[in-house]
Amino acid sequence: MQLSITDLNTLCLLAIKAAQKAGLLISEFSTKEVSVKNKEAADSLASQVVTEVDVKAQNIILEVLSPTLSKYDLALLTEESVDDKSRLQKDYFWCIDPMDGTLAFTEKTPGYAVSIALVSKSGKPVIGVVFDPTTQNLYHAINGQGAFKNDVAWQPNLDLEGKNSFTLHIDRTFLEFDYFNEFILGLEERLTELNINQLKIQKQAGAVLNAIWTLEQAPGCYFKIPKPTAGGGSLWDFAATACIFNELGAPATSFNGSALDLNRSDSTFMNHRGVLYASNQLIAKIIMGNPILAKNT
Fold first, then answer.
1. Is 271 part of a structural domain of the chain?
2. What does the mean pLDDT of the chain come to?
3. pLDDT of the residue at 42
4. Same-domain check for residues 187 and 73
5. Residue 288 — left, alpha, or beta (φ > 0 → left; ψ -120 to 50 → alpha)?
6. Which residues does the annotation place in the binding site?
7. Which residues are annotated as a binding site for Mg(2+)?
8. 126: helix, coil or strand?
9. Per-residue model confidence (pLDDT) at position 171
10. What does the alpha-carbon distance between residue 140 and residue 36 come to, in Å, rounded to a whole number?
11. Is residue 264 domain-shared with residue 172, that is, in the same domain?
12. Which residues contact 158 (CB under 8 A, 6 or more apart)?
């Protein structure tokens, strides 16, 4: 079933409603002690942590969105449920992370968010909704209709001109790589050539807000290099923000610059191609061309 512009607008409003309801629940639990469990996932702690709030948030989201599955013939992929592979048959599927950045949530620090996307069978995100419970900021985009922050058309300043600081958004595991310091030195040299003399490192957020903050705190970038082992984030970590980046004309690609594989058939992990988000094309080229990263991918 192909969706019309009217259908997309209706579905986006429902996704916004679901994200805000889940965000309200998350906010209510943000100052409480919650039970934390580990699940089977990739090898990083951030990917293994799950709380009762993740599950409750997912249930709230599905209360809103489940009726659309039959009405619009949609498939469903969520972080806290088994992938039934229906996303490979239907024309579109919901791709949901009820609370990305669970580790930050358990540490009671900003960095967690609700992420809901609608993705085509070809892997193109057509709706992206992100809600940050800490700031109450809502970000959304619909393919071909632009990006919005708190329901107002949004076009952050992504230019390098006049900027003297750069923010590198990273996962904590990247700090443990033996080539991290060498990479930082090389990046600082390239930034100096652009008259950027301050490099900030932000390592507290999940993938969703790492991407959003790449826009909010531009110039900056967030990436995950390809690796042979399972991990590298999952489809639901990147689908919504990719839609927002696409509408802003900012790079959201695989690490080699090719399109994100957001409906990978053999896995939900993104390790095979990696991920690169950048505030503009020049920054993306600098990261892709970094010799230290190239040697280790």
1. yes
2. 94
3. 45
4. no
5. alpha
6. 79, 97, 100, 237
7. 79, 97, 100, 237
8. strand
9. 94
10. 30
11. yes
12. 215, 218, 219, 248, 250, 279, 280
